[in-house]
């Protein structure tokens, strides 16, 4: 474990030394602004640092036995080969969050990066070699879009693979779960979200607007913990919408990710843009109003204006499915119970956010929201020491934190008799 710890630590240091170059690869691959890409590399490396430290803390147990001539021991052992299937929106961090834990536990990994963003995975492999992580421990299998389903199936069905860890859409996750069931593999699934962002009358509106901006428009709305629907209480609804619209117009700049003033890069592909358009068209046809944005940006086909909608109802598509783009729909509500009911109506539950300065309400709502992660008066909540994951159809298991390494360990009970 000490050797694993030292190699992971070295890998972390190499990532930080090459931060600028790694960030440029991400911006070139998926378009996110360079400053965000630099942030991702720091975040990505933090998982290697965290799990380098956790590698030496895989504690077993000694359990008092019921018979005098026995001793009961519990050992934790690596599950074996882990297949890691990652998405394009965080092409580096979604790898290290899984691989750091797997390697710390003593597993080897086969990484299948998203077909849109294979270069980050390969760059990490080069640094793994430099960190003297032995050959065959970190493996990358890039593949084309055409081959993705077939490669995913092989990874999930091959008996030599003991564990699957996937981050991506709920629909794909369900297919992989079915494949993995054939050989009863261990699975970790971090699937889609539909994050509510509730602003109560007692909220500090300026802080709520700042949190809303960060939570909704990071990576142009293309993260699984991005706010997907805003629920704003009637007493502060108009003030919030007005300030939010001003902040969008003033602080967000659509452009090339390599341009220093850009905060909003392109969406990943044409299909992503079409989904945003479809959600806006559906909402407007049912009576929603466009406050700002609403259409493709003049820069090019994958660029879209940051958009704010009001008069939104729960019947609209954008409040029923994940948009994964720069669209903020605002629903007005009257009571706390109503907001919680709307928030929990989704079949997924990854992140949820709310702003309130009433301590009793904070406890009530934090406990009642059916999500794996809650941001109270905070719009950005991810970090290496916190357990990341969801409930309902948002997935299985947790990543990062002291809990993340357990996903790659088997518990073995040893009964030592005849003493």
TrEMBL record:
Claim: Membrane is one of the keywords in the record: no
For this protein, what is the EC number?
1.2.1.24
Q: How does it assemble?
A: Homotetramer.
Q: Which PROSITE patterns match?
A: ALDEHYDE_DEHYDR_CYS (PS00070)
Which ranges carry the Aldehyde dehydrogenase domain? 2-414
Q: What is its main location?
A: mitochondrion
Q: Which family does it belong to?
A: Belongs to the aldehyde dehydrogenase family.
Which reaction(s) are listed as its catalytic activity?
succinate semialdehyde + NAD(+) + H2O = succinate + NADH + 2 H(+)
Coiled-coil regions, chain positions = none
> Can the keyword Mitochondrion be found in this entry's annotation?
yes
Query: Any idea what this protein is called?
Result: Succinate-semialdehyde dehydrogenase
Gene Ontology CC terms, in alphabetical order: mitochondrion
A GO MF annotation of the entry reads: succinate-semialdehyde dehydrogenase (NAD+) activity
